[in-house]
Design goal:
The complex is a heterodimer of chains A (about 300) and B (about 250). Chain A has about 300 residues and is mostly helical. Chain A has one domain (about 1-290): ABC transporter involved in vitamin B12 uptake, BtuC (Orthogonal Bundle). Chain A contains 11 helices and 6 strands. In chain A, strand 4 and strand 5 (about 145) form a beta hairpin. Chain B is of the alpha/beta class and about 250 residues long. Chain B has 2 domains: about 1-80 and about 155-250, P-loop containing nucleotide triphosphate hydrolases (Rossmann fold, 3-Layer(aba) Sandwich), CATH 3.40.50.300; about 80-155, no CATH class. In chain B, about 35% of the residues lie in helices and about 25% in strands. In chain B, a hairpin with a 2-residue loop joins strand 1 and strand 2. In chain B, helix 3 (about 95-105) packs across helix 4. The chains are: A mainly alpha (about 300), B alpha/beta (about 250). Chain B: One of its GO terms (biological process) is L-alanine transport. Chain B: Keywords: ATP-binding, Nucleotide-binding, Transport. Chain B: InterPro entries: AAA+_ATPase (IPR003593), ABC_AA/LPS_Transport (IPR051120), ABC_transporter-like_ATP-bd (IPR003439), P-loop_NTPase (IPR027417).
Chain lengths: ~300, ~250
């Protein structure tokens, strides 16, 4: 019982991480048809923003020592700011470009951010102690669950409800849903396109900040490539979920997290090192049977 | 009393003339029909009038003043609204949201936009569909939503691009009653592009016929019905037959 519960929590926590990241990608894809591969590097940037620039192995923390109620908003704001900045400086110039061009630009931007971090902090992973109180385990029905895992799951659920309410109930949310489905039409009707796109980038960046906090506390290290793996999984989740479908991205994120966790448990020990191969195998199967994604994407439905 | 005028509009795409020196006039409360075979330039003209397509030559005049270069949403705010072929609603949004977001785009407050959206759905006769997802509607209803959306903010002019396409006789008749109310009750000037010639002849006060980008005939429905040139445009050279297209939907 205890170990089963452990697996469930592991799956939900990993799935939460993927779901939050996938949501950040799907939000921007929705309004701009841009797959933002720089998202992973924004995640890394958020963690490094807490450290004083130095190439030493020991991290010199400055903002990282703030109390949590200042630290969390700061990291979210850093993510949002960097993301909005990338829109203003880079992506705004690609509004009319085709999706492939925008994707390449986002790759390039990601590497610019990564090498900027490399320059300031070197490529050595640094050990940090981010929100150390969260690493203690708590006991639920005989399973020892890290507090961080529980908080990750709860935060993700709260974010999902909050975002849903925001999109459904607010004026800005309505404009964003309209723009996500048909940007040109929304613009023709007078929806303020720039504000909507900047809002999507800000939300996406804040989500990257949330992931940075979770990853940083979980691993206890800051590494310039720390966003890459999450980004890849999140991208896969948005594809499986149906590009641009927010609900699809979230469901697929949880699905991937569950598959990875379950593989870790049921694979024979010798094969566990190849877990990801099995996960990607499952991805291929999903795409063979539902090439359009689990939920068909917004705006992709055309009456024949 | 307001007047929207196309003054000697020409549009060329890469040397190909889509429109040449087209004149057209719509006044408040008037229904003007725009007819012509496929590729005659009807939608191009609507695109010019609504700011989607800058003319190569000529001008669009609103109440005598030239409108040069404003973006579609600015023209929309100045009272020139349109619908699109096939409706083009936000299919994932509720019907009411489709209208509400338009009101917001026009600069209304959220509560004002909701209030007008409700009133408008009621006016076009689909108040009961307010909370349906737009993409699930049958397309006769979808067209009504599109028209309701275009009427948000009470535009002075509405340009309808093939609103009756694919409709049965009864559906087209209902639509035609709605269009008449838009002109008579709202005092809106209507420009109607429609392939259903019967509907155009029945509904319009004035008709302009385009062929290959040029106006070949203009006049009242009786005149157009009798026109030899119009018959040629639709029938090629087989002018000895009557106009079968005129019977569509009658």
């Amino acid at each position: 019982m205890g170990s089963l519960l452990q697996v469930v929590f592991d799956a939900l926590a990993l799935g939460s991480l993927y779901a939050l990241a996938a949501l950040g990608i799907a939000l921007i894809f929705g309004v701009m048809r841009l797959v933002n591969f720089a998202h992973g590097d924004v995640i890394a940037f958020c963690v490094f923003a807490l450290l004083w620039p130095s190439t030493d192995a020991v991290a010199v923390v400055f903002a990282g020592n703030l109390p949590w109620f200042l630290l969390i908003p700061l990291v979210l704001a850093v993510g949002a700011a960097l993301s909005v900045l990338s829109e203003l400086v880079v992506f705004r110039r690609f509004r009319r470009a085709n999706p492939a061009t925008m994707m390449i630009a986002s790759f390039a931007l990601g590497f610019v951010i990564r090498y900027f971090l490399l320059m300031l902090y070197s490529s050595r992973p640094k050990s940090i102690s981010l929100l150390p109180a969260l690493s203690q385990p708590i006991e639920i029905f005989g399973a020892r669950i890290p507090l961080l895992q529980l908080i990750t799951i709860l935060v993700t659920i709260a974010v999902l409800f909050g975002l849903t309410a925001f999109l459904r109930r607010t004026r800005f949310g309505l404009e964003m849903r309209a723009a996500a489905e048909n940007f040109t039409m929304a613009r023709m009707l007078g929806v303020r396109a720039n504000r909507v796109i900047m809002g999507a980038f800000a939300l996406s960046g804040a989500l990257a900040g949330a992931i940075a906090l979770i990853l940083g506390s979980q691993t206890g290290t800051a590494n310039i490539t720390m966003g890459a793996n999450v980004m890849l999984m999140a991208f896969i989740a948005t594809v499986i979920g149906g590009m641009g479908s927010l609900a699809g991205a979230v469901i697929a994120g949880f699905l991937l997290g569950s598959i990875a966790t379950v593989m870790q448990v049921i694979l024979p020990p010798d094969a566990r090192a190849f877990r990801d191969a099995f996960v990607y195998g499952a991805v291929i199967l999903v795409l063979i049977f539902r090439p359009q994604g689990l939920l068909s994407a917004r705006g992709a439905k055309e009456r024949v | 009393m307001s007047e929207l005028v196309a003054d000697r509009i020409s549009v060329a795409f890469a040397g190909l003339k889509a429109l040449s020196e087209v004149d057209l006039k719509v006044a408040s409360g008037q229904i003007v029909g725009l007819m012509g075979p496929n590729g005659a330039g009807k939608t191009t003209l609507v695109n010019v009038l609504t700011g989607f397509q800058p003319p190569t030559a000529g001008a669009v005049l609103l109440d005598g003043a030239p409108l040069s270069g404003p973006k579609p949403h600015l023209l929309r705010r100045r009272g020139i609204a349109r619908t699109f072929q096939g409706g083009r609603l936000f299919r994932d949004l509720l019907v009411i949201d489709n209208l509400e977001v338009t009101g917001i785009g026009l600069g209304q407050s959220r509560s004002a936009a909701i209030a007008e959206a409700r009133a408008m759905l009621d006016w076009v006769g689909i108040a009961h569909l307010a909370n349906r997802i737009a993409g699930t509607l049958p397309y006769t209803d979808e067209r009504r939503v599109a028209i309701g959306r275009a009427l948000m903010g009470r535009p002075a002019f509405i340009l309808l691009d093939e609103p009756a396409a694919g409709m049965s006789g009864q559906e087209a008749a209902d639509l035609s009653a709605l269009i008449r109310r838009i002109a008579r009750e709202m005092g809106c000037g209507v420009l109607l592009i429609e392939h259903n010639v019967g509907l155009v002849l029945d509904l319009c006060d004035h008709i302009v016929v385009l062929d290959s980008g040029a106006v070949i005939e203009t006049g009242d429905p009786a005149f157009i019905r009798a026109s030899e040139k119009v018959r040629h445009a639709y029938m090629g050279t087989a002018a000895d037959t009557h106009m079968p297209v005129l019977e569509v939907g009658q």
